[in-house]
Amino acid sequence: MADGADTSDTADTTDIGDGRAAKRNTSRSGGGFGESRRSGFAPAKKTAASKKAAASKKTAAAKKPAANKNSGWSSRRKDRDPADADKPRPQPSREQLEQRAKNILTYHLGRQMQTRSQLADRLRKKEIPDDIAEAALDRFEELHLLDDADYAEVFVRSRHTDRGLAKRALGYELRKRGIDDETAAEALSTLDEDQEAATARRLVDSRLRATRGLDPQVRTRRLVGMLARKGYSSSVAFRVVKEALADEGQEIEFDDPGFD
């Protein structure tokens, strides 16, 4: 019996120990009613996330009016009186118009040289009154910031050197930019006949290779036409082309069409 009692006591003790261990394992591993515990805590996690999202939306909504206020757009439109839309804008004073004209001239002259006529057109497009525009242009001429003679001289030199334009084409371009005949003639006088002929020959030489293999008459028409479009007279064009072809060993006879 003693052995039986001992066995029973040992079993009871084992059962108690196993029960406690199982309880501890269950609480640690989440077994048994661990599923119900997780299902019970899931709504709590969702509620916390919802609260956090709601707080974020509330913060963003609080910051949005401040951004609009800084941008100065929606708040002003809401506060603007509709009757103000029909009110005429205040006209700038003469001092403001004079300063505006000065700023316009300074800006455009700072970018590139321009004629008085070109700058007058720009002031007119900006609705600067004629009397204020003329006064501003006169003042810039007095300060030597605006000079049509200098413009014409630089224009003739650069366009003749870079593009090979002859006097006729250069004179047309100057008049189109508002340069008067006297100023244009003075600038064009810096080009002499020898200089024009040398530039024409340089243009022909640059095109000779592209026309090789063509009929001599076709080559002549193309080269002479190219010089004519750049403002050269027929006499200069045909003479230069004939000399260039002769240097290549081609002798050709043609009549001067006289497109001067």
TrEMBL record:
Biased composition (Basic and acidic residues): 76-89
Pfam families the record matches: RecX_HTH1 (PF21982), RecX_HTH2 (PF02631), RecX_HTH3 (PF21981)
Subcellular compartments: Cytoplasm
TM spans (from-to): none
Disordered as annotated region, ranges: 1-98
Biased composition (Low complexity): 1-16, 39-70
Domain RecX first three-helical: 101-139
InterPro entries registered for this protein in UniProt: RecX_HTH_1st, RecX_HTH_2nd, RecX_HTH_3rd, Regulatory_RecX, WH-like_DNA-bd_sf
Function according to Swiss-Prot or TrEMBL: Modulates RecA activity.
Protein name, entry field: Regulatory protein RecX
Gene field: recX
